[in-house]
Amino acid sequence: MKKSLALVSLLAVLAAAGCGSGDAGANTLSFLGPEDPKTFQPVIDGFEAKHPGVEIAYTQIPFDQLNSTLQQRLAAEDETIDVYTVDQPRVSALAARGFLLDLSDWKERVKQAALPAQYDVNEFRGKLWSVPIWTSDQFLFYNKTLLKRAGVTPPSSDPAERWTWERTVEAGKQAQARGGAQWALIPEQIEQYYQLQSLPESLGGGSGITGADMLTPALTTDGWLKAMTWYRDLFAGGLAPRGVGSFQTSPLFTEGKVAFFAGGPWDVGTFGAAGDLDWGVAPYPYFEGGKQVTPTGSWSWGINPASKKQRLAREFLEYAALDPEGNLLTTKASPIIPANRAAFEKYVPTLDALAGEKSRGAGAILTYDADHTAVARPRSVGYIQFEDIMTKTFADIRNGADPKTRLEQAAREATTAWAQLR
């Protein structure tokens, strides 16, 4: 079975590499990304309706193969890619290698249209290289039944009453002791930098990257050490499970085994469909005495400089990112947050109503966090290497490694990996 799946994935990549070749019509735009085609069909339909005779040919590349596929084809100046999705922390690396078209003439338009944290992530060395399509946030979901059994009053959905991580853990322990919860607290992306960055950031530890060129590791600060000690203790104390990977955690919540679950807006739809599960949503926690920080960031879109259809590609990006109608259509098939401010304001009520009373308050949390607590991942040409290093670091600490020793090791690994980029 594994060999068959691997062969299918390989054939998909090879097919994508050959698609949209030179015989594509002048009005056919090639668009690559990792999402299911159904996700982008509404915005494609909307754009094609406004541009009769134009066709957007979308090709899905498996997420774990997208970056390598793009690197190979863009390095070869493959002109059959016109538009492609860009994981926002990778903008700097792609721009530095000449893989993105300069869109700096749109700077002011994008600043005006995008949510506050969604502009800077698209800049590198003073120029704009991509446009934001989506953003994200994290919530604290809770199981009402488990908390009620334990005599715990659930957290409020009001951002002004945001709980601390310390309070959340204590309530989770009570749910384990008296409410029948198997697990106290689980982060959805259990070993991913996207979600865990907020822990040291809340304690003043920074992103882990510093320096004028953002190629100096800063992983041994007090904030990082305290955050990773707390993170290790979460698993060592039996409050969260080992042996479960990122995005494999939500079933534990839907099965009623988890008191508190830190997850994204996409979980609202998933949990809303979970039968009789009684749950609620609250703001993402922070550390006592620390700063309120919430994860953010998602996908932007960019244009291949080798494309022969740059004018049409710009029109497609303009519709999907700067036109509220188009940006809202990118979220129609999936509960993903639009990055365009006007589209965001129309989207918020739909998320609030998605799971009825259970999801009520999610919109107010989204709105507050977008303006006050959202912190994006760092902009560095070395982010790709950094993310890989940190995923392994989090895994080791989660499994019992000494935080100080492992963070020091990660800093050495980053220094070595970045030496060639200076």
Automatic annotation (TrEMBL):
SUPFAM superfamilies listed in its UniProt record: Periplasmic binding protein-like II (SSF53850)
Pfam (any one): SBP_bac_1
InterPro entries in the record: Bact_solute-bd_prot1, SBP
Spans through the membrane: none
Top-level taxonomic group: Bacteria
Keyword NADP tagged: no
UniProt KW keywords: Signal
Signal peptide: 1-26
The name this protein goes by in its record: Sugar ABC transporter substrate-binding protein
Native organism: Nonomuraea maheshkhaliensis
